[in-house]
Write a structure and sequence with these properties.
heterodimer, A: four-stranded antiparallel beta sheet, B: mainly beta, seven-stranded mixed beta sheet, four-stranded antiparallel beta sheet, globular
Chain lengths: ~110, ~110
């Protein structure tokens, strides 16, 4: 699976959009981009995933660049409860047993 | 009720003791997983099971064993606990169709 690079930390103001970048320049054509988050010591929580097209659900939006080498997770209206470590993961659907969590981005939402 | 439950939530045990961590799920998924997380690090896969008869080692299976008693139950055992197995353990379930995994609340294990 392709490696991902995320900034180690970022701050966001409550009520504002949080834009979390992820680089995955070695992604291959059949690999998906997944986002999870982990609120302090809780089990990781699935957020969203995508292949080529932008995706949106009740939690977030995922914007994938046309060349698929990077993506951005958007939390449209960040709340204090969105403070967590966010993980960007690239993997092929056939390898769904391999969920490789890196260091992620620690997002702190401030009032 | 939670879709994935883990028991116990916290456990302190002594070196050399055998301990079992249990996981149950109500999502009806065939696939189940055990991960461990050490402070400040990401999750590492210990074992995974694609169905009751299909169990596979992950990247750090030494010192651990598992049992898939039913589709809904997947247990992790430490045959002889050692201090460097002190960690947060997570169980997860998933399906191949959608690819995402659903995690339990975790078990905090301390080996003294």
């Amino acid at each position: 699976d392709a490696k991902t690079t995320q900034p180690p930390s970022m701050d966001c103001a409550e009520g504002r959009a949080a834009n979390l970048p992820c680089n995955h320049s070695t992604i291959s054509g059949n690999e998906y981009v997944y986002w999870y988050r982990q609120i302090h010591s809780q089990g990781p929580q699935y957020i969203i995933h995508g292949l080529k097209n932008n995706e949106t659900n009740e939690m977030a939006s995922l914007i994938i660049t046309e060349d698929r080498k990077s993506s951005t997770l958007i939390l449209p209206h960040a709340t204090l409860r969105d403070t967590a470590v966010y993980y960007c993961i690239v993997r092929g659907r056939s390898n769904d047993y391999k969920l490789s969590f890196g260091a992620g981005t620690t997002v702190t939402v401030r009032a | 009720d939670a879709d994935v439950t883990q028991t116990p939530r916290n456990r302190i045990t002594k070196t050399g003791k055998r301990i079992m961590l249990e996981c149950s799920q109500t999502k009806g998924h065939d696939r189940m997983y055990w991960y461990r997380q050490d402070p400040g690090l990401g999750l590492r896969l210990i074992y995974y099971s694609f169905d009751v008869k299909d169990i596979n080692k992950g990247e750090i299976s030494d010192g651990y064993s598992v049992s898939r008693q039913a589709q809904a139950k997947f247990s992790l055992s430490l045959e002889s606990a050692i201090p460097n197995q002190t960690a947060l353990y997570f169980c997860a379930t998933g399906t191949p169709e959608r690819g995402e995994q659903y995690f339990g609340p975790g078990t905090r294990l301390t080996v003294t």
